[in-house]
Every structure is written in structure tokens, then in C-alpha cells.
Amino acid sequence: MSDTEDTHEHEYEHEFDQSDSSPTGPTPVESAEAFDGLNADLRPGADNCYKCTSCDTSCPVAEVDDEFPGPKFQGPEQWRLKRKEDTDIDESIMSCSNCMRCDDACPSSVPLSQMHNTARGEYVEGMDKFSREYIRNRILANYGTLARIGSRVPRLTNAIMGNRVTKWFNERLLGITSEREFPEFAHQTFRKWWNDRGGSQVTSEQKRIAYFHGDYSNFNTPEVAKALVRVFESFGYEIAVPEQRCSGTPMFANGMLADARRAAKFNVETLSALVEDGYDIICSCTSCSMALRQEYPELFDFEGTGEVAAHTYEAVEYLRLHEDLEGELHDSDSEIDHPALAYHAPCHARNQGLHRQALELFRTLDGVDIEDVGDSCSGISGTYGWKSEKYDYSMEIGEEMFEEMKDAEGTTGMTECPTCAMQMEHGTGYEINHPLEVIEAALT
């Protein structure tokens, strides 16, 4: 059993922005707030753009926000302007939701989201650090920091954050919409449960995974994390749960690349050591797997970044690759509580080619009816739909998904993304499950 499995809850709760020593890779900006992305050479990607506008037509924000110029301007065109003349990054870059659908749409593999992340980081470097927008975005980007505090007294925190006065205060002072229900903290975090049970219940030299659970599964939906543990142990996997920080996805989306760099550096150092010991890295959130697989190697150059990216998988993807998951589910005698499921594929699942896997998997089960509720973005895109000025746009983007869900036979939703689940429940009132929860119910 790995020593990382003995990590105690209080060790995990250290702030991730502790002293930040220089990275093992090159440091392009000489300051405490340095991050690699600012000096990324994007010229090859910019030159590959031939202005077909496929990215613009795929962008859900451009479809509803007439003032947003779209991914093509935010990426290659802005890059060219910036380097041709003394031009500041356009403020519209902060309206990009980081859904990354433009990456998938581009026929010539222009690194659009990498350009957007870099441009946002540069724009945020020049923001007034005492402005409402900066403070609000920094809070949303660093949800895990606040969650570590709030989860210590979950009942009190839930009562305070659900209070109408608190919602009004957050909207007026910070610009965080009062229309949404703040996600409740679990009474016991996943890591507390994990430590109380004594870590992994399976020992194996051949089948080892390191679980990157992320903040939300730890603090808010530990039932998803527990389902992953039980399912993988049923297939004979030894599981390590290492110390970790946020994957950085909300930080990328808000241009907080210095914060993302610190979190990524910590994660790469911890996870790469486990990869060397024969572990593969498994995520239950498609945004987490996307960050480790794509955004880390695009923006950072730490030692071990490539190895971590190459050994990172989404949970269901990994089981389908390495186990006969379909066969085990087909042979199971267990009944699923919600046999009619309305499934939404997150944008970050689409970017990894995983948008069909849940449909293919559950359609093989007798007595289960699963319906695809369309290929639209859910609209929440992590923190985007929590901003007061973006809330109406997020709901307009999500309208197609809401209608598809309401027309579906089932009244239970399913998705791999926690914020998509938030939006699905918010727009329809349906209960939302993670595929791992359904698999656990069928197998165990």
C-alpha cells in the first residue's frame, strides 16, 4: 500500500498557495506570480488558422451574447494583433466560458483554448486587484480554499450560504448570482471517509490506480468518490488517494494562471511519483481529466507533466479499456433504481472523445432506457453561470438541454460533470446521478 494513502485530512487542508519554489522547468517570467503560459509560442497554431469560422459557429457563448466576438478573434486574430502592434488584450476574453468546444471544432488543430487561457492570464495580470470583478473571480476560481473552511462546519455553512440575505449580499457586493442554490457541503468529506476506513481494501502489484477526486467530490458529492472506490475495488484494484489541489479548471477559466500554476505544480509532483510506482491516474470528473491531460502540458513545463498526462484517464473510460465492464453489467442481477436516464455529455467529455461512452455502456443493460439529451452545452461552464452578468446567458445556452430532458422518458438525469449536474438540476428539478453511481448500484 502506498504511503500516500495514509495522508491525514488536516494535511490536505493546507493552503495550496504556500511558498512556491521555482519550477523544475524553465520560468519565463521573473516574479512570484510567474506562470509559464505567458511566453508560450503560439505562432504555429495561429498560422494554421484559415478563418473557416468553425470555432465561432460551435461557440455557445457567441450564439447568445451578441457582444462576444467568438473564439477566432480571441485566439489567432488577437494573437496577431498583439504581436503586430502595441495592443492590449481585449476585455471580451473574460466572457469565454472555457467550454473548449472550439478545440474540437477546429479542422486544422489550432490550439484555441491554449490561446484563450494565455490571453486571459495576461488580461488578469493587468486588472485592478481590488476591483469587484477580480475579487469575485478569484473567489470562484479558488473554490477549494473556501471549501476547506466551510466543510469544517457543514451544517452551519449550508444554512448560511442558503440564506436569502447571504445570496443578496453575494450578488450586490460580489456579483455572484442569487438565482442559484449554493451546493451543500457533505457532513463527512470523502477524504475523512477514506481515512476512517483505513485506505484501500485491496492490495495488488499489477492493478494500481491513483484517484484524483478533485474538490467537488471531496467536499460536496463524496457519494461519487465512494462509488468509484467500491467499483474499482470490485475489479481488484489497489487505490491510492494522494494529497492534491484543485485541477485548476476554474482558475484557467478566470485567468488566474498564477494560482493554477501552483496547484498544477503540486499535483504533478505528487502524481508523477505515483506513476513511477506503477499507478495510473483516474478522475471521476471530465474537467479534471481534461486539465491533467491537455491544459497542464499546454501551459506548464514541470518535470513529470508529460508522464502525468499520458497516464491520466476518466474512470469509465479506464474500466472499458482494461476490464470487461459491459460484460459484468450484463451479467449482474442487481436492479437499477432509475431505469430511465436522461444523459448529458459534458463539453470536456466531448473534447476527450468520451461523449458516447455512457450511452454505449448503459444501452447494453436490460431494463435500462438511456436517452441522449442533445449535443448542446449545459451553459453553466463551471464558474461562468455563477456570475450575475452571465446567468441569463448560461440559462439561454442550457435551454436546449432543459427541453430535451423534459421530453425524455426518464426524470433522472446523468452526467460526469458536477457543474453540468448543477445546471441540469437547476433547469429541470430532476435528480442527477453520476455514471459511477449507476455502475455501483448494478455491480455491488
Q: Quick gist of this model?
A:
With 444 residues, this protein is α/β, with parallel strands linked by helices.
Structure characteristics:
444 residues; alpha/beta; Fumarate Reductase Iron-sulfur Protein, Chain B, domain 2; 4 domains; 4-stranded parallel sheet
What's the story with the biggest beta sheet?
4 strands, parallel
Helices, by number, come to 25
Strand content: 5-15%
| Chain-averaged pLDDT | 89
Q: Label the structural class.
A: alpha/beta
N-to-C span: 23 Å
Rg, rounded, reads: 21 Å
Number of strands: 8
Overall tally of domains: 4
Question: What portion of residues is helical?
Answer: 40-55%
Which strand order do you get reading across the main beta sheet?
Answer: 2-1-3-4
Could you say which overall geometry the principal axes of the C-alpha atoms support? globular
Low-confidence stretches: 1-35
EC number: 1.1.5.3
GO molecular function: 4 iron, 4 sulfur cluster binding; glycerol-3-phosphate dehydrogenase (quinone) activity; metal ion binding
InterPro entries: 4Fe4S_Fe-S-bd, 4Fe4S_Fe_S_CS, Cys_rich_dom, G3P_DH_GlpC_su, Helical_ferredxn
Protein name: Anaerobic glycerol-3-phosphate dehydrogenase subunit C
